Amino acid sequence: MLVTGASGNVGAPLVEHLVAGGARVLVASREGKRAPEGTRAVRFDFEDAATHASALEGVEKLFLLRPPTVSDVKRHLLPVVRAAKDAGVRHVVFLSLLGVEKNPRMPHAHVERFILEAGLPHTFLRPSFFMQNLSTTHRDDIREHHEIFVPAGKGRTGFIDARDIAAVAARTLLEDGHEGKAYDLTGAEALTYAEVATLFTEVLGRPIRYPEPGALRFALRWYRRKQPVAFIAVMTGIYTVCRLGLAGTVTPETQTLLGRAPISMRQFIQDHQACWM
Ligand SMILES: NC(=O)c1ccc[n+]([C@@H]2O[C@H](COP(=O)([O-])OP(=O)(O)OC[C@H]3O[C@@H](n4cnc5c(N)ncnc54)[C@H](OP(=O)(O)O)[C@@H]3O)[C@@H](O)[C@H]2O)c1
């Protein structure tokens, strides 16, 4: 099996599950050097077509994601889908996005279409907002400013822990019976950011605020951090969707597929608390 994005939020725990499940795992990365125990490293870069065929040689199953920095999916993901077809890949599990079927302009919708058009047996994983955004993108706001600084108003989010997505991905790759399916994956509850801040306060033992910034204040803070305008626009858009009350979907599919409750926000904070200290 070839795992793309293998060092990421979903890919890293996925590789652990696959190794534990006895799979022979090829770990794809742009460097092609680091490989966890029990796996083999392979150089693979979406933006370098010369790496595609060699990485996919002999691969039966592919875990595919679109790295957040790769925006032109026609240019950089379509060739990978075609190379997978040419290599005889029997099953592609694609990390997509919740609600993608209603947003045909999203890059993930295009990739789903490429896979369908290639006639590749597939499973689409459509997760909600990752809890890990709080330990990566927003970590410094929480650690240094003691606040969650996102323009989400009082909107709710059906957060999911990326480790649960990885566990589902592992099942779909290791078991039969998931071909042709699309799974809407969320956590067990939808929380406001005020509720998330309260959980942080309780677990970390120091006050973490949610000042409910507007979109402009949020964009300005990230602009001053010299982040690309496109990145700021995407983030502002995502949180505006939440502010409008459109991110609170909760589905039972994670629980059904894993046979246990999804990881809660409290558990996520407990497990990662060192990163905000
Ligand atoms: N964050 C959310 O709330 C959320 C919600 C729903 C869906 N998603 C989707 O989930 C995906 C991101 O998953 P993630 O958070 O697990 O990833 P991530 O932690 O952002 O990691 C990105 C991965 O992509 C690899 N990568 C980056 N550029 C590459 C390139 N040019 N060629 C090959 N590999 C490359 C990196 O590997 P190396 O650096 O080692 O090469 C890294 O392993 C995105 O498609 C995003 O839209 C995210």
TrEMBL record:
Pfam families: NmrA. Residues 2-210 form the NmrA-like domain. Transmembrane segments: none annotated. It comes from the Bacteria. This is NmrA family transcriptional regulator. It comes from Archangium violaceum Cb vi76.
